Amino acid sequence: AFARLQELVVALGAPGTPIDLVNIGGDAPDVMDGAGRAHMVEHLIGPVVDTILEEAADPATPGPRLAELWAEHSRLGRLAELLLGNPNTPLPLLEELRRRNLKAFASNPALGLLSLERPQLLSSMTLSEFEVICRQPSPPQLVLDFLLSSANPLHQVVLLERCYSLPSEVLERLSAALAPAVRAAAAKHHRLSPGALARLKVDPEAVVRAAVASRWESVALALDLVRDVAPRVREALAQSTRHPEVLALLARDVEASVRTKVATNRHTPLETLSLLLDDQASVVEAYDTIERGA
Q1: Burial of 273 (0-12, 13-18, 19+ CB in 10 A)
Q2: Region of residue 179 (phi > 0: left; psi between -120 and 50: alpha; otherwise: beta)
Q3: What is the pTM of this model?
Q4: Nearest to 15 by CA among 33, 3, 30
Q5: What is the rounded radius of gyration, in angstroms, for the C-alpha atoms of the chain?
Q6: What pairs with residue 19 in β-bridges?
Q7: Strand runs labelled E in the chain
Q8: Are 211 and 187 in contact (CB under 8 A)?
């Protein structure tokens, strides 16, 4: 029956093609306009499609049957999403379809058991795939646990940069990670505790202190970083801070790269910019900033 309906849909989709209305309940051959064709397609195919999708979503549907549904009806719009969410979908099919809807794949209730059956299931995923999953309002705990326990620091960086609702205990743990890149990503997370931030501002790695400096934080924290020994930390501070007193101090920095960041900071007051007009290293940038603000 579905094969016959498919033949009719093909005919209905070709404007000007005669339709055998006798075989579908009419009286004689006719030619239908576009609106009539669309209505006929919906009338004939709708109930059949609904039945297929219901079967794909039913957790009682056996795995082999789910594989058959995909083999026979892969062009149906929501079929991949429903199969990805069905706990009975065979693992090879899940892996084949996962890129079509990563959210549905990660939410499959059998994913934990499947990952035990195939340990490489999550580890074979790319960073960009994890980024998509972590952007969801409530990423699956299984994925979060995998990223948190992974030996690859980039997994923790993705977790910190893409998941905005990490629990405080997770943030505390990652802020003390061995990899400087992970601590730097933790330093930028908006939910990091003041205690962890205070610890990271004196981190032995400049990349971590620069991450702290890039935040819009209190003037007290900014003033603590004004005299950091690493120029990249002061550069990050000069680029991000909005505090006039901090910018005034950085405008006198011994490093031209830091003074240049002050000159190009849109929040630098004109009074501070005027101090840089005699600074050959940053006079052009200061002039451009004044012109943009004029």
Answers
A1: buried
A2: beta
A3: 0.67
A4: 33
A5: 30
A6: 30
A7: none
A8: yes
Residue 89: Cβ-neighbour burial (10 angstroms; 0-12, 13-18, 19+):
buried
* Chain centroid offset of residue 250 CA: 35
Residue by residue, DSSP assigns 218-279 as -HHHHHHHTT-S-HHHHHHHHHH---HHHHHHHTT-S-HHHHHHHHH-TT--HHHHHHTTT-
Rounded to whole angstroms, the maximal C-alpha distance in the chain is 93
Of 74, 126, 71, 77, the closest CA to residue 99 belongs to 126
Put residue 193 in one of left, alpha, beta given phi > 0 → left and psi -120 to 50 → alpha: beta
b/e map 125-154, b = 16+ CB within 10 Å: beeebbebbbeeeebbebbbebbeebeebe
* Distance from C-alpha of 279 to C-alpha of 286, rounded to nearest angstrom: 9
Q: Which two tokens stand for residue 271?
A: 């009074």
List the chain pLDDT tens, one digit each, 294 residues: 455 555 555 554 444 444 444 444 444 444 445 555 555 555 556 677 888 899 999 999 999 999 999 998 888 888 999 999 999 999 999 999 998 988 889 888 888 888 888 878 888 888 988 888 888 777 888 888 889 989 899 999 999 998 888 888 899 999 999 999 999 999 999 999 999 999 999 999 999 999 999 987 788 889 999 999 999 999 999 999 999 999 999 999 999 889 989 988 999 999 998 888 777 665 555 555 555 554
